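Predict the assembly for these two chains.
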Amino acid sequence: MSKSSSFVTSLKTISVLLIICIVCGALLALCNDLFYIDEETKFNRAMQKVYPEFERDTSVSETPLAEFKDLAGAGSVSKVYRSKDGAYILEATGVGGYPDGSGTVTMYVVVGGETPNVEIKSVLITGNTKQSWIANITQKNIDKAYVGKNIKDVASLQMGNDYKWGGATMASTAIMNAIKSAVNYCVTALKLVSTPESEARDAAVALLEGYTLTTVVDDAYTTAVGANFYFTGTKDGADDVDVYVFGDKESGHQIVALKAGLTHADRMLDTAIVAKSEGIDNALVQSAQGLSHIESQIRALAPSFTYDVAGDLSQYATHSDFADTQITSAYVCNDGTLAIVAESTVGVFEDYTPGKLTMMVVIANGKISGFKVISYGGHSYFDGSIGNKNPQLYVGSAIDAIEYVKVSGATGSGVAYYNIIALSAYYARSISA
Amino acid sequence: MKLKRFKEIALDGVVRQNPTFKLVLGTCPTLGLTTAAISCLGMGAAVTFVLICSNVIISLLRNIIPDKVRIPSFIVIIATFVTLTRMVMEAYLPDLYSSLGIFLPLIVVNCIILGRAESFASHNPVGESALDGLFMGLGFTVAITLMGIVREFLGNASFMGIELWDKNVFSIGFFSTSAGAFLTYGLFIAGFTAIQNAIERKAQAKALKA
């Protein structure tokens, strides 16, 4: 083969390959314009696998958010996206998986709906560490257990047979923890639903100006009627400030303590009096991590709290209208709040011996502002009466307009409550005059 | 094209030279994707499309492409169609696109496609090459879908993504694993070869009698 022939062959070879490459490249460039999918569409599609109605709401700035650690280290939330229909997709990781609780399950949890019917719309496992048995858990299992549940109910779920499958108890625990973390984020950070816990937390944080809650450390004793919890946060740039909160919805107590001491109590006076005269009632301040701190702070408050004996007890301690009832002590605070401790041994009904009821009545601004049952005879009628919130019926009443309120099934004890409250009101009116 | 030639190409593609069970080509997607039958159908469709298109183009250019650069040229042509398939699938079938994952771009190096380009399309006219692509693709699709159905049924107690019963009640998880894929593949090859041999023996006996 001659040199020139070889050159022509080589040129032809290169040219053909080059032309094929150019034509193919041009075709692909054309198709790329035709079938181009932007990043937003790709993202929406990915999310639509979890929640078919998803369309990212870019007008809100919380997507994605900084990692959120859940109460007691149950899990964390790493990403949150909001859909235009108001639903949220949260990427949550739950701990507690195999082995020894160190394994994790990561999943998408979709939460949406109008308050108060905010529910779990969808859940999807996206990853796990060390959960070899998780394959035994089907999507159907998880959907049946969690989808459609109101997030208020999810927060209090306990591990049981309805939430563990295929022998994978620990993986099921991690799944529950991931979902609980997501729900807790919705309640705490997104405030999608109001709960006693969130209300108590918000109230506590609001009392501390410039304070931001970061982690709830212990919330084991929060119930529907009271919030006892302990959290850390930041204040004025300082990290890890510990805050202990006791809130009692029934009596309206709100006690907030920092490490340095008691910062706030709605009714310092009766808190101090209870501490001084009766000791701390464990039913009032339950034992839990952090709450022992509150207890010690209240005890410390009692001896230092300044109050005076109010009025002349010998003159106004009893009244003929309120049989078998007498005031045993009365205190007035600097702000004029009165705390009156009285007892009653009413026995107006046949075969009914209720025993002695001792109660503290707090009067502020001319109204009954609160009460504290210190002790009672232990009769079932009293239990029923407290269950019927008998004394609560008088809270807010003006001291010159106390009227007997009959509570069905607790007539005798109702009289005892009335006598103490009415006598306290009479006493307050008398010493004011 | 004569009917006999059409039959020949069809039988070669689907049975006699079935790329999966006879030639044992394209084993990566066969082993990797057969946990779900619906993914197998998608993969089969994608491979068939690329096979037909690349066979047609290569057949058209068979007299133009110099011998020395035929393999690079084939690869460029195949890669173009695979990329095109990928773009279309991403745009219009995103679920299938994500379920095929890495196996979709890997079609570029699928031995079935390069093998047919080299052994058939570069030597035959356009019509026959297109038919070869179609039936080879069909053979591949049927083979992996059958495997997918069996593995999905035994391993996940479902059919084409539809749950038949709770897999915790009864399923053989082994068939969802890589080892299960090899075992299923082996059993299918054995079964396919046994049936084919039986048919051939029967045909030979018939021919001898005649």
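Residues 3-209 of chain B form one domain. The interface with chain A takes residues 61, 64-66, 68-69, 72-73, 76-77, 79-80, 83-84, 87-88, 90-91, 94-95, 163, 166-168, 173, 176 of chain B (CB under 8 Å).
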